[in-house]
Request: fold
Amino acid sequence: MENYLSVLICDDSLLIRKKLRDTLAKCKFKEIFEAENGNVAVEMVKDHNPDLIFMDIVMPEKDGIEALKEIKSIYPNTKVVMASSVGTSELLKKALENGAYDFIQKPIKQEAVFNLIEKVLKEGRVNV
Reply:
């Protein structure tokens, strides 16, 4: 599954970032960036304008909802997929209301990631 997309992984857990990076590496992304919190994610988006972002909702410094709002105000077409654990349905609803593209449940399963990427690729690149 070779593609032309760049992706940003934003999660405060190094282990989750590594697992997701390993999964995304199988998709042969053009570039994979990482951020450990919402502040870093917003800066990375300004610098690299990734096509797709996997964003944890609950993080220190700046949570995923606040980062999502900022990112969407800069690049409204960026696809941001929110990642959440069980029990954050209110936060997910808030994320979707603020422009999240989709959501993925933690622990993140490889098949769910592949399905999301396939969906994004079918829709075509919007961030050019």
